[in-house]
Design goal:
single chain; 215 residues; alpha/beta
């Protein structure tokens, strides 16, 4: 099975995705600035699922050990985290879940898409895909409930997009290829709408669904 490293995997979204991929049978590595925190988060996943396949490492070691790397750090930490991991990420697919949206005052971001910024920072040796920006973190750990949130996958590399779709499906979600990295700016804007909807209707699990498309 694929080895997936989640950088920022001790946070709500990262740990939720890790839990679902570990349940699906993938080898999961929790990455964190603190290896100790990462090990603790991995131990919790192993205990919950009755497995021993999740482990914790510092971010650089996690990136080097993975087949695919998923970035789930806060938006303000995106650039600094990636800057220190250029060599560790060389030759890999990076799935970037960054959405530059302030949860307290949600509105669509300006400028370039977060995925495009990551691609420009890392260079052509890393294939960047943007995905999972719209998935409510609170819903990921509810393994006994349907995860009613579709994933829009944006990336310039078709093979990398397809791999991200497989990851989403392994985590129990429908996923759709939604064009190049620049389209990710629209997806990040949807994050602002989803946060606003959840606040208005007092929910923590609202997401988006794509209709009219057969796969």
């Amino acid at each position: 099975m694929t080895t997936i490293s989640i950088l920022g995997g001790t946070g709500k979204e990262g740990s939720g995705l890790a839990l679902r991929w570990a349940k699906a049978g993938h080898h999961v590595i929790i990455g964190s600035r603190s290896a100790e925190r990462a090990e603790q988060a991995a131990a919790e996943i192993n205990s919950q699922l009755g497995i021993e396949t999740a482990r914790g490492l510092d971010n650089e070691s996690a990136a080097r050990a993975a087949d695919i790397v998923v970035l789930t750090v806060p938006a303000e930490a995106q650039a600094a985290t990636l800057e220190g991991l250029k060599l560790a990420l060389t030759g890999k697919i990076l799935v970037d879940a960054t959405a530059r949206v302030d949860a307290k005052a949600p509105k669509p971001p300006q400028g370039k898409a977060s995925g495009r910024l990551a691609q420009e920072l890392l260079g052509s040796e890393v294939r960047v895909v943007a995905a999972f920006q719209n998935v409510p973190a609170h819903a990921l750990k509810k393994l006994d409930h349907e995860l009613a949130s579709d994933v829009l996958v944006c990336g310039d590399d078709a093979e990398a997009r397809a791999e991200a779709v497989k990851l989403a499906e392994a985590a129990g979600m429908q996923a759709y290829e939604a064009g190049g990295l620049d389209n990710g700016l629209v997806v990040e804007g949807l994050t602002a709408l989803i946060i606003s909807l959840n606040k208005r209707y007092k929910s923590k699990t609202g997401g988006i669904r794509i209709s009219g498309i057969s796969k």
